[in-house]
Design a protein that fits this description.
This protein has eleven helices and 15 strands. Helix 3 (121-134) packs across helix 4, helix 3 (121-134) packs across helix 10 and helix 9 (264-270) crosses helix 10. With 325 residues, it is an alpha/beta fold. It starts with a strand and ends with a strand. Its EC number is 1.6.5.5.
Length: 325
């Protein structure tokens, strides 16, 4: 097998494409022949030694992938050689093969596209947990999505529309705003040239959004929170802009609003049955055509450095996917 090996976590430039022994699954594990893997922001952080999870060196990065079961370890049930699966396992995805604990695999319906499967679990799992579980978003409510053209943003947009909400998509360029309208956004805001608070006031008749979905953080957080509706829910997804904002808590008091943390990976670990129900709903929505992972570009697995460069360009719409074969 071949894989991208991180021996010194100083950034993507330190990764090396190497031939490694094909791993054998241990008890409770499955070996997967990887067909596709997608990039997520934590993949960059982990090879920079900036992520909260720090795997022992050396390791193969790549948290999210899809492929086919190639071998079963002792005690594994419910899976068979040849099954199509997807996983969000933390590491191991940027290669041709990996072993993964069986509970971390989602068995896919027949014919599910591998490139889409590799871009499903993290962004759609996060966004479903955020909007449906944590925010209890209801049909007819208004949700503001920051960074709406990115991976989690496009997933959140589609899920909010599937629930029946009105979506205001905020992005950093007119082109990205046009892209979001093409995905079904009811209104858009280019926050690099428009005043976020003034636009939200105009678009909601002064009421504000019921839910704010924020994977961006930084200087957008406070104006978004100041605009939130009475009993609004502010979802803390991540901090793609880099800065972790400090929100004035008196605003939560004045608006009767909630600041809600979203950590899908921990939710999946602590509440596996609830997570399984959420994933089943996502698969059903995909079969119905209500959601579909947005793929920005597809590159060969051997071109991981170019994929990281593409992800860092701020021009990505949806997810960058790497393919084997």
């Amino acid at each position: 097998m071949h894989a991208w090996l991180c021996e010194n976590p100083t950034g993507p430039e330190a990764l090396a494409w190497k031939e490694l022994p094909t791993p054998q699954p241990g008890p409770g594990e499955v070996r997967v022949a990887i067909a596709a893997a997608s990039l997520n922001f934590p993949d960059l952080l982990i090879v920079q030694n900036k992520y909260q999870f720090k795997p022992p060196l050396p390791f193969v990065p790549g948290a999210e992938f899809a492929g086919h079961v190639e071998a079963l370890g002792e005690g594994v049930t419910g899976l068979a050689v040849g099954d199509a699966v997807a996983s969000f396992g933390g590491t191991g995805g940027f290669g041709t093969h990996t072993t993964v604990a069986a509970p971390l695999l989602l068995r896919l319906p027949a014919g599910f596209p591998m490139d889409e499967a590799a871009a499903l679990l993290c962004t759609y799992g996060t966004s479903h947990h955020a909007l449906v579980d944590r925010a209890a978003l209801r049909a007819g409510e208004t949700v503001l999505i920051l960074g709406a053209a990115g991976g989690v943003g496009t997933a959140a947009l589609q899920i909010a529309k599937a629930v029946g909400a009105r979506v205001i998509a905020a992005a950093s360029s007119d082109e990205k705003c046009d892209f979001c309208r093409g995905l079904g956004a009811d209104a858009t805001i280019n926050y690099t040239r428009q005043n976020l608070r003034e636009e939200l006031k105009a678009l909601t008749g002064g009421r504000g959004p019921d839910v704010v979905y924020d994977p961006v953080g930084g200087d957008l957080a406070e104006p978004a929170f100041r605009s939130i509706a009475w009993r609004g829910r502010y979802l803390v997804i991540g901090f793609a802009q880099g800065g972790i904002p400090a929100l004035p808590l008196n605003l939560a008091l004045l608006k009767g609003a909630s600041i809600v943390g979203v950590f899908w990976g921990e939710f999946a670990r602590r509440e596996p049955q609830a997570n399984a129900r959420a994933l089943a709903e996502l698969l059903a929505w995909h079969a119905e055509g209500r959601i579909r992972p947005v793929l920005d570009s597809r590159l060969p697995m051997s071109e991981l450095p170019a994929a990281f460069e593409r992800m860092g360009s701020r021009g990505v719409r949806g997810k960058v996917v790497l393919l084997n074969g």
